[in-house]
Amino acid sequence: MKKTKAKGQRGNAALLKLRNRQRDSMLKELTWLIYFMEEWYWQSVEMKNAAQYKDPEYLMARWKKIRNGILGGPGYGDGMLQERLNEKMDNVLKRLKADLPHLKETEYFAFSYFAAGFDNLMVAHLLKLKSSKIASTLRSHIKAEFLLLQSEYKFEYLELLPLQQLPNWQRNAIFA
């Protein structure tokens, strides 16, 4: 990208508008991280000597509340992640619920996590599954449900549930 020298506010109006949009976009993308960083700072700096913050159960409850508020989860409901997916993807999760009303809560949240790009290990952790293999099996089960679906959104759902590929070095080792 060509470097642009600042010519004052009026001389670079287009550049300043671009930077403003870029800053707003970054802020939206980093909003979720801010909640975690705020809590980390609060626990490790501001409240590190408070008695309640030495109780692991209390700390875990605080982290769980923040995590569920951001990522949603079974028994908790939608979080910021599901709201963002609906906002950015024309209410894809609302349509999914309407197309598959029998979809279990665990499958619904697994789909939202996979659609956001989380890997099997992270999905297993968030849903309290015993292994990433179980998360992979869950992904396959959801995909099979989508293949049977008679909805105009079927292929959109399938696209949001991509297969996870092995890293290149592992694929090369297998097929060498």
Secondary structure: elements and pairs:
Elements: H1 13-46, H2 56-71, H3 80-88, H4 92-99, H5 105-115, H6 120-126, H7 132-148, H8 154-159, H9 168-175
Architecture overview:
The chain is mainly α and 176 residues long. 66% of the residues lie in helices and 0% in strands. Helix 5 (105-115) packs across helix 7 (132-148). The radius of gyration is 21 Å and the shape is flat. It starts with 12 loop residues before the first helix and ends with a helix. The relative contact order is 0.07.
Give a summary of the structure in a few sentences:
The protein has 176 residues and is mainly α. 66% of the residues lie in helices and 0% in strands.
Shape: flat
- Distance from first to last alpha carbon: 40 Å
> Which value, in Å, is the CA radius of gyration?
21 Å
Total beta strand runs: 0
List its traits.
mainly alpha, 176 residues, 9 helices
